[in-house]
Design goal:
It is a single chain. The protein is an alpha+beta fold. It has one domain: q2cbj1_9rhob like domain (Jelly Rolls, Sandwich), CATH 2.60.120.620. It is built from nine helices and 13 strands. A seven-stranded mixed sheet has the order 1-9-4-11-2-12-13. The chain has a four-stranded antiparallel sheet with strand order 3-10-5-8, with no helix packed on it. The longest helix has 24 residues.
């Protein structure tokens, strides 16, 4: 584990780490496909992709998976929160992409102790739009701007100017089903569109040490304690399916997403009175769904 830790901090990532067998990835994929084929509300088709561990039982189990937790502990130590989990799903021939960015640029956490573990539910290749990383870029902070492109999967569209990086430095993080890549919170990363005839499904988990604080102006401040203890109490603790039903977690999920929706409006509009007025309407699923359709998030 010491060699892995050394490699992680030197390069900003480690990859091709097997978490489980292809058969387990297929079970998750089949469950997710079943969900997509149902008649879901528009809001659910969008909002399940963030804080996913509060929406799907399989996701809640994954953030507590022994292999995943041991991997995170090897870098962060014993006391860890899962602050977020996300689905990065690209349909066949999708134009969707993730602009090049550094997560910690907009997380604004108080300590440099955060990482992501991205797990391949389908295979992830250059053709279907795999993760791309610039090794060792976590050692430098880049200026970011918001890129207004409806195909950008990132909600705020945060991106590093192409003039500030050398694209030749980018490497492809190709993964087989059940493998993962663990990367530093400050590494430059993104992905291109899916040129294949098959979907690409990556599940990403964000882990933080318990002594961190999130910039609550921009992000929710609740998280699931997945390892150790928390003596700081900076985060509001989420329940897990060990203690409550997935239906109860989905109620918390909706509250969290609506709160985040309001925070994004504040970023864009910057006048809280107007935001509060709009949220009177956007608290309703139907109207948030219309907004998502307008923004082509469905």
């Amino acid at each position: 584990m010491e060699n892995l830790k050394k490699k992680f901090f030197e390069n900003g990532y480690v990859s091709k780490i097997k978490i489980f067998e292809k058969s387990q990835a297929d079970e998750i994929l089949n469950s997710y496909n079943d969900f997509l084929q149902k008649e879901n509300k528009t809001v659910d088709l969008v909002e399940h992709k963030s804080k996913t561990h509060l929406f799907f039982p399989w996701a809640n189990k994954l953030i507590r998976n022994k292999n995943i937790i041991n991997l995170a502990k090897s870098i962060l130590g014993p006391n860890i929160y899962c602050w977020n989990s996300l689905i990065f799903y690209k349909k066949p021939k999708s134009e969707a992409f993730v602009s090049l960015h550094q997560d910690q640029n907009y997380w604004e956490i108080i300590h440099d102790k955060a990482l992501s573990i991205q797990l391949a539910i389908t295979e992830s290749t250059e053709e279907n739009g795999c993760l791309k990383i610039i090794p060792k870029s976590h050692k430098k902070n880049y200026i970011h701007n918001d890129l207004n492109d409806l195909n950008n999967i990132l909600a705020r569209g945060q991106t590093i100017s192409h003039n500030d990086i050398n694209k030749d430095d980018l490497i492809n993080i190709e993964l087989e089903q059940g493998e993962c890549c663990m990367f530093h919170g400050n590494i430059v990363h993104g992905s291109l569109k899916n040129n294949s005839n098959k979907p690409r499904f990556l599940f990403t988990m964000r882990f933080l040490t318990t002594d961190n604080k999130i910039q609550n102006k921009y992000y929710y401040n609740n998280a699931t304690l997945v390892s150790g203890i928390d003596t700081f109490n900076y985060f509001k603790k989420e329940e897990s399916t060990n203690n409550v039903s997935i239906e109860q977690l989905r109620i918390e999920h909706k509250k969290t997403i609506i709160d985040q929706f309001e925070k994004y409006l504040n970023i864009k509009i910057k006048i809280k009175v107007i935001t509060k007025f709009l949220m009177f309407f956007f608290e309703k699923d139907l109207l948030r769904g219309i907004a998502y359709k307008f923004l082509k998030k469905v």
